[in-house]
Amino acid sequence: MNTPLDQEPEDLRYAEYVLGVLDADARAAVEREIAADPHAAAEVARWQRCLLPMAEDIPATAPPAHVWTRIESALGMQQTTRRESTRPARVGWWSNLALWRGFAFGAAAVAAACIIALIVLPRATVTPAPAVAYMASTIMQTDGQVGWTATMDLAHARMVVVPAKPQSLPAGRAPELWLIPAGRKPIAVGMIAASGPTTLALDKALVAQLGPTAALAVSVEPPGGSPTGQPTGPVIAKGAIGAAAPGKPVAMLWNPANGRDHA
Amino acid sequence: MVTSSDDAAELTGLMRACADGDRAAFATLYRRTSDKLFGVCLRMLRERGEAEDALQDVYTNVWRRAGSFDSARAAAMTWLITLARNQCIDRLRRHREEPLDGAAAQQIIDPDPDPPARSQASEERRRLEHCLGTLADQQRQIVRAAFFSGATYNQLADRLGVPLATMKSWIRRSLIRLRTCMEQTEANP
């Protein structure tokens, strides 16, 4: 009762941020400060050194092997590091590469994948189908050939990207996938494989941008991804995003009001 | 938890190699640290599938952002745990602004850690424990509950049935006391 708290609550926002008690808006405000102000970043780092040792009390728990497989896949690493994996991962239908490879060739691949996904899978897995289940994109190369096909599973916030055929890229370069909302700057989605399917986890902000006015594009980047957050190499393929069920209007499928976010 | 300086130096080296695009180093870093980070995700999210998704996002971020790791500012393990905690807190804010049910609310207050865990703790952990020990029992438990649950002030107030202003006052007062105590022990270890 002797501490004049009401006069200095601002002083504690970095501590409150590290402790984790701020709401989403206040957290975002502190994160903007950290990015812009070295003093704020130093204060946050000081509180991390102070409070993070509490995490030593948390017991370590081995994650299942399929998490590593998914990480490799999301980063487009499965081509070189899959052989190093010691255990085969437990895979669901979504991670079934043979399934996606099978769908990858031919112009009807995306539609076929999505019709099957829409019709068969919701029943097979006995989960209620969300308002918008899947979207798809055929990402065309500049020469008019299909470069990659992308299928977006909105309920699980993930995307499978499959090359129509193995893509050749300059040595030391890798393809990176971008989402381009209409009239906006590209947003990095992730590194994709040049010669195999890639599953990418999509964050919430990115899922919210998926829709018929957005496009996907592939650019050629260093293996770790564009260092600038924007495409730095040539764009080699581009495609529009559509709802993945033939015969249904996009607007009906894509109704943000029916989104799964209940926050 | 990685505590020895050799381990810390190894992790720092692995982080730098990741920043240079070394995939083998990334795989080693995962093997060395993912058990701890998965423990953190499980503790905060309390749901296995979501903890797996969070862990995946944490390590894809580790790979993409390894270049921003600054060993002068934070130890590698601190950086990694911070990334995991931030990922979990962001997920909690997106999906679970609504109050948890009664069973989850009951779990919010954890008992203090067992004495054996304390004896294995790092120097930093022992110092923090000493400073947490200067708080009243309830205040200490609320700070721990906040840290481990990632709950907002509002959620903590709801779950413990106290006004929001009271919860803020308790936590802010505790943070000020911790800061003062940590500054003193830093000056006089």
Task: Spell out the blueprint of helices and strands.
The complex is a heterodimer of chains A (263) and B (189).
Chain A: H1 13-19, H2 24-36, H3 38-51, H4 65-74, H5 78-81, H6 97-104, H7 109-119, H8 121-125, E1 134-141, E2 146-153, E3 158-163, E4 174-180, E5 187-191, E6 198-201, H9 204-209, E7 215-221, E8 235-243, H10 250-253
Helix pairs in contact in A: 1-3, 2-3, 6-7
Chain B: H1 5-19, H2 23-45, H3 48-65, H4 76-95, H5 102-106, H6 115-119, H7 123-132, H8 137-149, H9 153-160, H10 164-187
Helix pairs in contact in B: 1-2, 2-3, 2-4, 3-4, 7-10, 8-10, 9-10
> What's the domain count of chain B?
2
Query: In percent terms, what proportion of residues of chain B is strand?
Result: under 5%
Number of strands of chain A: 8
Largest sheet of chain A: 8 strands, antiparallel
The number of domains of chain A is 2
CATH class of the largest domain in chain B: Mainly Alpha
What pair of chains forms the biggest interface?
A-B, 56 and 71 residues
Q: Order of SSEs of chain A, N→C?
A: HHHHHHHHEEEEEEHEEH
Structural classification of chain A: alpha+beta
The number of helical runs of chain A is 10
Q: How would you characterize the largest beta sheet of chain B?
A: none
Report the radius of gyration of chain B as a whole number of Å: 18 Å
Provide the structure class of chain B.
mainly alpha
The end-to-end span of chain B amounts to 22 Å
- The level of helicity of chain A is 25-40%
Examine the coordinates and then state which fold CATH places here, giving the name of the CATH topology of the largest domain in chain B: Rna Polymerase Sigma Factor, Chain: A
* Strand neighbour order, sheet with most strands of chain A: 5-4-7-8-1-2-3-6
pLDDT average of chain A, as an integer? 73
CATH architecture of the largest domain in chain B: Orthogonal Bundle
